[in-house]
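_Backbone structure tokens_
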Amino acid sequence: MSRWKAPHTTLLAAALVAASIPLATPLTSHAATTKTLAAGPVNPGFETGDLTGWTVTEGTAFGPGAVSTATTYWGGPFHHRGGHHLWGHAAAGDDATGTLKSSTFAAPSHIGFLVAGGWDPQRLYVALVRDADGARLLSQTGTDDEAYVRTVWDTSPWRGQAVHLEVVDRRTGGWGHINLDDVRVGAAAVRDDNGLAFRTLGQANQPTARRDYAADPLRPQYHYTPYQGWINDPNGLIHWRGRHHLFSQHYPDAPKWGPMHWAHADGPDAVHWRELPVALTPAPPASPTDNSGIFSGSAVDDDGTLTVAYTRFTDTAAHPGATAETVEIATSTDGVAFTPGTEVIAQAPPGSSAGFRDPKLFRDPVDGRWKMAVGSGDAGRGKVHLYASDDLRTWTYSGVLTEGDGTTGTMWECPDLFPLDGKWVLLYSTNEGGQSLQRYAVGAYDGSRFTAERHGILDGGGDVYAAQSYEDDAGRRLMTAWMSDWNAKEPTRIGGWAGAQALHRELFLTADGRLGQRPVAETDTLATGTPVTVNGKTVQGTWRIGRGDSARLRTMVDLGATTADTVTLRLKASAAEATELRYEKSTGTLTLDTTRAGYGTPATFTTHAEAGPGNTLALDILVDRSSVEVFTGDGAALTARAYPRYQESDAVEFTAPTGRIRLVSASLTPLGSAVLPDRPR
């Protein structure tokens, strides 16, 4: 479990183009006057280069310098429209506060705009305000990122009423600013200049009376997500009393990292999930900045008692003199309610300067005792400590289980040691040069020391971290991971949630000794609707097999009969954007490309895929609303989050600009929701 804080905004930004529509709408109820009103705010994209049409009503946050022409910032492009935009940091930094008011206009059927900056619904937001009584009708905060995300509001309940926009900044310190660009009204708010329909994002579109996991067009439908708030590492994976249990690092109060809780879900098949009450809750914070909480850990069955071990993290800035990281044990007899934690390891052993966290429990077949692997690091080398116990309460330090050579990160998080196919496997997570990586090693274990014989990256994509495995009742080694990483953009914050867990996978060792993975077999139960299936298909140019925002594509490519050197698949595709998957025959390189995928982190990720029997390439691709997981026939994987901007971005296409692709088979199957009814709280 990493401690992470959003980076402080530094320099650079840019903006948009938007023109108000020269139509007038008669004033209706709640109007302050009977004159006709403008169809939208004056200077909706700040393209005058100043605040023409806008009025500073308070403070200094939105002085003349807030209208910026910058195009990039420390995290990449702003993705603004036109040449200018309102960058709340530009005029006076994060410590300035203030409010900015647009001109009055008649409320249309819809209002859309680009928003960025800090996430704080109470102190940082763009609001629609009714002139007659000053009522705030709708509001939207930022995403703790400078990259713009589009919000679309249905404003038809107030159509014709005199309204204005208000940009509010009442927050100081890091991310204490809000950005605005490209205000659109009416039909222009829901479709771009090329006629593509924007995905309707934003907190104002989330249901409040009930949980509707389908309402947000970026929310995955068959991956576990928090309804609101934040999740990261999966914890406590176990098959217990016939149910698969999934705990997650969780902050319920905001869609970003904070004092950690353990969210909890269970299900019958490691695919479908029922939300349970929060399992572990930290003590109330001692101050607003106290981030003390319950970090990552694991679970075992102790003679019928569900037993979890975890890191108790104490924020020493808020609690001077406390030990930052200790290990506690908690138990449950019903799989829902847990006892208060009991401390079992009070301090880290020597040589733990980089941290001491994420205990992984296992029963050791070498000597029959309970063992605990704990992540750590020292002197620039990641390492794993090992403890032993007979009763899960009294632990003896056994020494260093294994350590790195300095090339694989300075701290090894979330260690997981287990036997598999006659070998032992160690999973661990690292940060190397600012990049989050999920690593593995295959080797031998003698009860006290693990010796690596082979090393590898578990998933070549950018969004697998903190992987944890468990053995189910059928003897399979199953695994999931946080489907994100500490450097990723989180545009879903605009809807009040962030984070998802990867699809459960079955692990195995390949013939050449690598750690392979495939979707758990129960993924088949998600199938819904009628699949599109073809056999013996030759593709020249572009061929669309179908559309799928939540779907599974399984295909077999005859590489010998394929004359194109690059086999390309466009996923989540429209005329404006796509996530591309490319396989180069000459090198065996498989690339997942999100540089034109919409919102999120633009990047390319690669792995190597060997041809299978008959010189064929087998691909199993799981597409969800904001994720893509690719599995090859030889056990390699690529996982990335991808957040389309447009409703039309759901096509699945094979393309060969030159040459041809010969498909032995291809099948596109719609997949349904994994959400089961919540247990009563």
In short: The chain has a mean pLDDT of 93. The two ends are 27 Å apart (CA to CA).
